[in-house]
Amino acid sequence: MDQAESLAQLSVEARSKMYAVTKRLAGLQAHVARLDALGLHLTELAGLDLEEFDFTGMPALGGPSIPISYEGPSKVTEQDGSRPVNKIEKQFDALDQLFAKREVQFDVLAGLLSSEQLRAESSPSGRPIVSGWQSSPYGYRIDPITGQRAWHDGVDFAGKEGTEIFAVASGVVSWSGYRSGYGQMVEVAHGDGLSTRYAHNKENNVEVGDLVRRGDVIASMGSTGRSTGPHVHFEVFKHGRSVDPATYISRTHR
């Protein structure tokens, strides 16, 4: 084989190896993109500062430059010539395995954070409306219709008709429709024996079986059922018995 043929063959082999390296590099870049997306997702789940944990740019690195010692030219055989490429391929393999392991770890951590966040959101806290005022407390009161002393299972928040009513905790809608005395009512089950009710609604925005998150709009304020004016009757039940919502209303969102 003459020198020209040898050079041509080496050129073909070089292009082939370059293509293989480029393909491996593209795969690693895809891994990095997925890890960046997972990192951003974890940052949001954990409530961290997005500016402090920025996965969209290069990491801030630095340090003094230490030159690599030069060992001088040496005779390279055809077998020796393939060693740098083989070494690079082994490094790519190691990076592939490392990235795959990190993705699995990030996925598990994301699942744990999501479960923890959902568990925190399933505990009722705050008021079911943004604007309005508490017009009736929990416990004994003078019934607004009969004028007699009677027990009141929830608290009432008065406001304008059509005012948005929000879920105070995440859960599953267990009732959405008309109920005697309550008018249009939404009930949300939150787990651990807790549930909340939102009654006298003008309109319900959810259906039974819907998954709602804390802060979702589930109804609009009205005066359906046994009511004297636009308000939301808000109840909290624990293991089938009504409890004073005041404790939950005064809680701040975690």
Structural summary, described in words:
Helices cover 36% and strands 26% of the residues. The protein is an alpha+beta fold and 254 residues long. The protein folds into 2 domains: 3-58 and 82-121, no CATH class; 133-249, Glucose Permease (Domain IIA) (Distorted Sandwich). Strands 1, 4, 5, 6, 7, 8, 9, 10, 11 and 12 form a 10-stranded antiparallel sheet that branches. It has a two-stranded antiparallel ribbon with strand order 2-3. Helix 1 runs parallel beside helix 3. The protein is rod-shaped. The relative contact order is 0.12. The model is unreliable at 70-81 (pLDDT under 50).
At the fold tier of CATH, the topology name of the largest domain is Glucose Permease (Domain IIA)
Radius of gyration: 32 Å
Q: What spatial form do the alpha-carbon principal axes imply?
A: rod-shaped
% residues in beta strands: 25-35%
Low-confidence stretches: 70-81
Structural class, by secondary structure, is alpha+beta
Number of strands: 12
Q: Mind describing the biggest β-sheet? A: 10 strands, antiparallel
- Top-tier CATH class of the largest domain: Mainly Beta
**End-to-end span in angstroms?**
76 Å
CATH architecture of the largest domain: Distorted Sandwich
What is the overall pLDDT average?
Answer: 79
Which series of helices and strands comes N to C? HHHEEEEEEEEEEEEH
Number of domains: 2
By CATH's scheme, which homologous superfamily of the largest domain applies? Glucose Permease (Domain IIA)
Percent helix, as a range, is 25-40%
Number of helices: 4
